[in-house]
Specification:
- The complex is a heterotrimer of chains A (192), B (233) and C (392).
- With 192 residues, chain A is of the alpha+beta class.
- Helix content of chain A is 19%, strand content 37%.
- Chain A has one domain: Protein Transport Mog1p, Chain A.
- Helix content of chain C is 58%, strand content 3%.
- The chains are: A alpha+beta (192), B alpha/beta (233), C mainly alpha (392).
- Chains in contact: A-B, A-C, B-C.
- Chains A and C meet through α1, α2 and β7 of A and α15 and α17 of C.
Amino acid sequence: MIKRLSALALGLFMLTACVAYQAVDPNEAVTISNRFSVTPQIAWAKQTAVGSKDTIWTVDGVELNVLRFLPAIQEGDALIRQSGRRSEDIVPYKDDMLPNDVADLMVTDLTKLGYQAVSYSNLAPASFGADTGFRFDLVMSTPGGLNMQGKVLAAQRDGGLDAIMYLAPSEYYFGKYAQTVEQIFRSVKAAS
Amino acid sequence: MDTVLRKLACFVCLGFLLAACTTTSTKTAEQANISWSSGLNKRIVLIEPDITLGSLTAGGAFDPRADWTRAAEQLIDQETAILLKEKNIDFAKADNLQNPRSIQVAKLHSAVGRSILLHLYGAGGQLPNKGKALDWSLGPGANTIRTDYNADYGLFLFVQDSYTTAGRAFMMVGAAILGANLQGGTQIAFTSLVDLKTGDIVWFNRLVSTAGDLRTPDPAKKVVRNLYEELPL
Amino acid sequence: MLRAGFAALAYLMIPVMVFTGPVSALAAVEAIDQSPGYKPEEDTDEGGLWMMVEDAERATKRSPLLVKDEALNTYVRTLTCRLAGPHCGSIRVYVLDIPHFNAAMYPNGMMHVWTGLLVRAENEAQLAFVLGHEIGHYLERHSLERFRKAKNTSNFLAFFSLIAAGAGVGIAADLATLIALGALFSYSRDQEREADARGFDSLVQHSLDPRAGAAIWSNLIEEDDAAPRKRRSPFFSTHPSPKERFETLTARADEIASFAGETVLGTQRHREAILPHRLAWLLGELKRAAYDEHLVLAERLLQTEPRSGELLFFKGEIYRKRNEEGDLEAARAIYERAILQPDVPVEAHRSLGLTALKLKNNALARRSFETYLERRPDADDRQMIEFYLQQL
């Protein structure tokens, strides 16, 4: 019970009860908020009513795998923008943040959302399309004690921060689409 | 407190949708080929079932009862064992998992169970890539449970309580077992059969019933039979 | 897997340092002392409560937040045992890696101690006061009364619904909501007064400094006062005010001052026990982004150890992350002091580098990053730091 509630209460990836999903064509490039495009690689399901500027995809359900696109984060925004988050929980992104700061901020944001024992590792420069961005790995556990892993690719470009985040339980699910996500990272292109 | 009420409202919505969208309860995976390891007795392990019995106080609060719960647990064990025996299958119980990986697998099952409930039973919206198919797995980690308990298949029995729905609906498995009077309550139980060799969920059942006066004879038998009547074994 | 209903028991985890008002005279309270080895009948409401607590205990044992370090556990358990006297055998202590001040006791003898409490207690006496207070609640079986009271309110559903400890045991997404609800269902004035009295008496009984209770409260108040209003701990707004309780405890300590005899603080023993973990816990605190409160904590800790490289690093991190006007320069100065100390973490050089980079002090950035990479050959962010160096 509480595990389910925790997932819902987190409000991170599943807001209203009446969410619908649309199919995503694996081979057609998708443009995210006019910022950048990616090629899905496989048949993801896209959440239609997100309550956020972000785009959310899943294959098996958001608690099992979630690919979240966070486009154009601006100064003053939380990294994870979601309607219903209280202002006192929002630790704002700042334009002068370095990649280390962004990774730290992601840890803080996930902590505020209720994940536990959150930490990042393997921070390194990485290509975001033609731009130079950065990437890092995440570990954490849910309030229910399920261990999770994640990876983030991000870039400060074009007047904002763009990021792509993949999160899934360590047991089976993270590995299931880890390579697919790498392919998606490699498929990033600036929006024309 | 606003946040509290807002969240409750979401849960209420969820609860009603769950109830409203019920069609068929039982789902079987398309590749549910039941197969057993050779050289061993067929065996299924019931993995840390989540059962709570109690009653509603006059004030509408839930009053958990240890004695009812313990009795229900035993009755469910017994009845499940009998039912399986009829199919020539041994029954084992995993009361308290010790292997850390098994524990993660069991926790994963909770998340998987919720996804199944959300996406196959209406409220969460069907996933276009799955449609109505029961197509979920716990992955190869399930094997640790298989080897620890010498069982090819596992049963998870999950009670999703309705604290989150409006009013006084509480869901408890087999509150009927001891003839508890659940005025205006709703019982929801769900259970899954897992192929422990692959971790695939091969069968899933959700039981929803609106309770009236549940003082019926042999209620434990009825609940278990009801839950497991369509087990593809 | 685990009983759904048990999670409701998480409400007992809510910070329970909620005190009563001034004690004029101790009213005669019916003390139903918990006898060692007690267990309720299964067919009672208390039996139902215990059932859920037993599930909470199993969840605790599996929690990723459970701290398993032997030496630390020995320290906390030994102290708890001393304070619990004949009840020692009934109490099981679990230390959880949670960056908030809290301890909680469950009716079946399980005790949770959060690392946020351990890092804030300045000595053994302060920790003993909190543990003694909790043991007081346990011995008087207050949680049963609280459970019964909670059951009969219409808010009970909301309460159950939102207490999200789950099978992993930890704090809910919405800690403030949790605490706010906890405040609704807090112990009564009398119960808190009794627990306070027990906490205080524990100190006296074991020749620990009787002023420790007032001291730990004073520190908490100071920390909370620094928080911006929206981030203040809701449990501080419950009656009676922490200030009153601080005054009560001070008054009681004054009363016995003249005949208290030699008392012990246990500063050294406490410090030895927590020092191997302190940096990790402080860095965990930083994930909360509670800068103002953390500055108060850092200053206070530095008062006793002004040349601790570790504590200076912690303080520097607060400024660097807060990054308000003047903070980067403040951070730079603090890191520069920190790196002169023998116990400074290697990461201080990295932080100094990051700070210098933003201050456009390229020479300092270079020096710092190079030192970091040299001293941390297996740095997992090596590529990133090298990238910064290339950009200089």
